[in-house]
Design a protein that fits this description.
181 residues; alpha+beta; two-stranded antiparallel sheet; 5 helices
Length: 181
């Protein structure tokens, strides 16, 4: 594993979930993910109302500027026949104009969540290189995703609406699931 010379990396102030500054998390998300919008309701559910976790967010700040944010969603998993605590990291975002923030954020994530034995995520190419080179993370493979239109469906007045997928997606899903039985 390559060693990190921390003296050469700027250090940012470490914080927790910014309950009163969600607008800053939304702005950073939009910057990090090409203008996409993260709703305040989703953030509040993810960090405040989610039944699976206590607040598991880490923030990095330079003054009043949110430099980086990451939150985990823990869950119980079975690994090699043993129950473990795992987590999904799905909201890692970094302002790339702050050097070293990605590495510091990842190191803080490991340090503050030592009870979690496995973290799954969907990092970009830059974070895969940083994570495997400096943090002993393992890239276990790429995941294929399929996207389709979901249609709003109402069964009856007693059953609330839900979403269904197109027949093309359902057919593809049934066909592919036969290979994984």
């Amino acid at each position: 594993m390559a060693r990190i010379d921390l003296s050469r990396i700027p250090q940012y102030e470490v914080g927790k979930y910014p309950r009163n500054q969600l607008d800053k998390v939304q702005a950073l998300f939009s910057q990090a993910f090409a203008g996409r919008i993260l709703s305040k309701e989703w953030l509040q559910w993810h960090m405040e109302k989610n039944p699976c976790l206590k607040e598991r967010a880490i923030t990095l700040w330079q003054g009043d500027t949110l430099v980086a944010y990451n939150a985990l969603t823990p869950f119980r998993a079975i690994l090699c026949g043993k129950e473990i605590i795992a987590a999904v990291s799905g909201t890692k975002m970094v302002d790339e104009s702050f050097p070293g923030a990605s590495i510091q954020l990842s190191m803080q994530l490991q340090k503050q969540n030592q009870d979690i034995q496995m973290i799954c995520g969907f990092p970009n190419r830059k974070m895969i290189r940083i994570s495997t080179k400096y943090l002993k993370h393992h890239h276990v493979g790429n995941i294929a995703f399929w996207m389709t239109e979901a249609r709003k469906t109402e069964i009856s007045a007693k059953i609330h609406e839900f979403y269904t997928f197109t027949e093309e997606y359902e057919m593809l899903s049934r066909k592919l699931s036969k290979y994984h039985e």
